[in-house]
């Protein structure tokens, strides 16, 4: 590991140049700086010709990079990925139809709570699994509408394929893809409503989400009027028809043009390095470094046992071994916190503790904006910090 020999107690000397390993907001793209952002739209109305043009450009560039089919709609939504997926759920899920919500980490469980406590869907199948596992999705009836999270942001477990979704299935699919899209290929033909936020794989500013709708999703929205009240932020119809202006840059409420310009800069960077293919390759290479290191480290294991289900973005790892397992639950929870604190104090790595609701763990973001060399430099420091925590 760079200049570090396993098991030695001295501090490594090389530090990551960009010590940003948070799973959201994530690291900015390499070479990012504020002067790379265009500012002509700042201080202007988002409904001006310029404002709408920049919002439409962000939509068009997203479509191009993601390879979204021409007959799908792409729109900017308020309230990040949360706003986008809840708008889809509240606008598309019909109590008269059977619905399955599948979850295997924290955010998927929030969508379950929406379905159970807020929408109170009577024909609801809930499927859950522990951190690191995925429920048996093949048991979901094809007539059911289904809500799922492509990649578990807080567990590091992703779906290995979409074979469980039959072509031409009766139900609609609502896919929370926020920590997967741009780093993992989407099977658009099987996806009806797909959502994500700007602040995951693209490393852009948060608060705005994206909603991608298939023709089947549009038909559902236009043919179904929910019985429950819809907040303005979720309303996508004008009369009986979908408001297509939302998918041409006419946002439901006022967006941040500064955040929009930041997202555009990230999209342009992605295009300049080779587009989606290059983004996926960068995430794969980054995550392979971390996964190989976990395999070679006896006191760690990947939270996800099945390699086919291990993410290439937020790689999660838990502790093991006699020393760790001899600790009380409280002391076990303190191990990753102490490691992160030691490295943050030295400006080596920030925000790589596991999610608060997950088992005690570390989570290293390996998305496309992170540089391999920075990961290589981080890992020996984690080994050093672990030994320091273990030996008091």
From TrEMBL:
InterPro entries: Pser_aminoTfrase (IPR022278), Pser_aminoTfrase_methanosarc (IPR006271), PyrdxlP-dep_Trfase (IPR015424), PyrdxlP-dep_Trfase_major (IPR015421), PyrdxlP-dep_Trfase_small (IPR015422). GO terms for molecular function: alanine-glyoxylate transaminase activity; L-serine-pyruvate transaminase activity; O-phospho-L-serine:2-oxoglutarate aminotransferase activity. Gene3D superfamilies: Aspartate Aminotransferase, domain 1 (3.90.1150.10), Type I PLP-dependent aspartate aminotransferase-like (Major domain) (3.40.640.10). Its cofactor is pyridoxal 5'-phosphate. Pathway: Amino-acid biosynthesis; L-serine biosynthesis; L-serine from 3-phospho-D-glycerate: step 2/3. It comes from the Bacteria. It catalyses: O-phospho-L-serine + 2-oxoglutarate = 3-phosphooxypyruvate + L-glutamate. Keywords: Amino-acid biosynthesis, Aminotransferase, Cytoplasm, Pyridoxal phosphate, Serine biosynthesis, Transferase. Belongs to the class-V pyridoxal-phosphate-dependent aminotransferase family. SerC subfamily. Its EC number is 2.6.1.52. One of its GO terms (biological process) is glycine biosynthetic process, by transamination of glyoxylate. It comes from Erythrobacter dokdonensis DSW-74. This is phosphoserine transaminase.
């Amino acid at each position: 590991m760079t200049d570090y020999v396993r098991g030695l107690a001295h501090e490594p000397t090389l530090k990551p140049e960009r010590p940003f390993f948070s799973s959201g907001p994530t690291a900015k793209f390499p070479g990012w700086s504020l002067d790379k952002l265009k500012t002509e739209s700042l201080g202007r109305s988002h409904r001006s010709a310029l404002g709408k043009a920049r919002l439409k450009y962000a939509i068009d560039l997203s479509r191009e990079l993601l390879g979204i089919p021409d007959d799908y709609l792409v729109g900017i939504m308020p309230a990040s990925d949360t706003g986008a997926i809840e708008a889809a759920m509240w606008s598309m899920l019909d109590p008269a139809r059977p619905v399955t919500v599948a979850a295997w980490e924290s955010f998927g469980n929030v969508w379950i709570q929406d379905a159970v406590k807020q929408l109170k869907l009577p024909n609801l199948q809930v499927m859950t699994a522990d951190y690191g596992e995925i429920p048996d999705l093949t048991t979901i009836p094809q007539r059911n509408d289904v809500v799922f999270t492509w990649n578990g942001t807080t567990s590091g477990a992703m779906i290995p394929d979409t074979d469980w979704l039959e072509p031409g299935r009766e139900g609609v699919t609502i896919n929370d893809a926020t920590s997967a899209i741009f780093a993992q290929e989407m099977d658009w033909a099987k996806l009806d409503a797909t959502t994500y936020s700007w602040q995951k794989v693209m490393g852009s500013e948060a608060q705005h989400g994206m909603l991608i709708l298939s023709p089947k999703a549009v038909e559902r929205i236009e043919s179904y009027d929910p019985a429950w009240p819809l907040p303005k932020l979720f309303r996508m119809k004008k009369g009986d028809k979908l408001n297509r202006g939302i998918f041409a840059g006419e946002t439901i409420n006022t967006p941040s043009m500064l955040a929009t310009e930041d997202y555009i800069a990230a999209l342009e960077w992605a295009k300049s390095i080779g587009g989606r293919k290059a983004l996926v390759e960068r995430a794969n290479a980054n995550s392979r470094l971390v996964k190989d290191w976990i395999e070679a480290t006896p006191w760690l294991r990947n939270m996800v046992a099945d390699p086919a289900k291990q993410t290439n973005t937020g790689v999660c790892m838990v502790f093991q071994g006699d020393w760790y397992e001899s600790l009380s639950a409280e002391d076990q929870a303190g191990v990753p916190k102490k490691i992160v604190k030691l490295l943050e104090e030295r400006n080596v790595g920030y925000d790589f503790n596991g999610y608060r609701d997950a088992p005690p763990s570390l989570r290293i973001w390996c998305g496309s904006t992170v540089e391999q060399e920075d990961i290589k430099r981080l890992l020996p420091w984690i080994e050093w910090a672990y030994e320091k925590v273990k030996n008091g």
